[in-house]
Amino acid sequence: MSDRFAGKVALVTGGAGGIGGAVATALAGQGAKVAVADLDLDAATALAESIGGLPVALDVGDADSVAAAVASTTDELGPIDVLVHTAGIVGGGGPLNGLPVEVFDAVTRVNFRGTFLITQAVANAMIAAGTRGAMVHISSAGAFSPTPGLGHYEATKAGMNALIRSAALELAEHGIRVNAVAPGPVDTPMTNFSAAPPEALAFWTERIPLGRIATPADLVPQVLLFASEDTRHITGTVLAVDGGQLLKG
């Protein structure tokens, strides 16, 4: 077992999900004390028990819930060194001219407002503790290359990228780094590509030069790299981990 994150406290949002769960497990395996934060507290508890972590209830779109999750993590584990923000939803799909405003509002609340709230809360906690920490957000290759029917989702990820760059600039004086990983499609319980009909799967795989849908495990090394001291001089970067999807526009 590596001790790369020994003694570090990591808060993982969406920690019971596909990407979040893989990251939380990897961080714990490398010595971190991990808070598994998720809207589904039962799932967060199950994962936390399996990795020796702390389950935390979290609705990232709710300011009080975010504040409580950060306080709980700090009280139980100590000052936060690493934030990995994976919580996000697609909320449905369809052309913008027919998209229900309720879908747009729900996705914006989680993906954009949630990014703002968790970044602000963790930044303030890090500053108060004097922690030179790292934040890693999960963005999307779709923020750079639009997909018909997903404009609402991709707009929130583009907004996330703008917030990340601003936060990186503003928090640099405190020694806090803010970066992101931007995957293409990832096979998780939310997307369930493994159960998709062949024609739907082909729509995505033919856009990817490397020829396959990513798995959460494909993202873990890059997330942990940004979270570690190995990237101590990198901030404000959004790294595509997309199998070459953006090369095709």
Q: What would your notes on this structure say?
A:
The structure is a single chain. With 249 residues, this protein is α/β, with parallel strands linked by helices. The protein has one domain: 3-Layer(aba) Sandwich (Rossmann fold). The protein has seven helices and seven strands. It has a seven-stranded parallel sheet with strand order 3-2-1-4-5-6-7, with helices on both faces. The longest helix has 29 residues, at 101-129. The mean pLDDT is 95. It comes from Actinokineospora diospyrosa. This is NAD(P)-dependent dehydrogenase, short-chain alcohol dehydrogenase family. InterPro entries: KR_dom (IPR057326), NAD(P)-bd_dom_sf (IPR036291), SDR_fam (IPR002347). Belongs to the short-chain dehydrogenases/reductases (SDR) family. Keywords: NAD, Oxidoreductase.
Topology summary:
Blueprint: E1 9-13, H1 18-29, E2 33-38, H2 41-51, E3 54-57, H3 63-77, E4 82-85, H4 101-129, E5 134-138, H5 151-171, E6 177-183, H6 198-205, H7 216-227, E7 238-241
Parallel strand pairs: 1-2, 1-4, 2-3, 4-5, 5-6, 6-7
Helix pairs in contact: 1-7, 3-4, 4-5
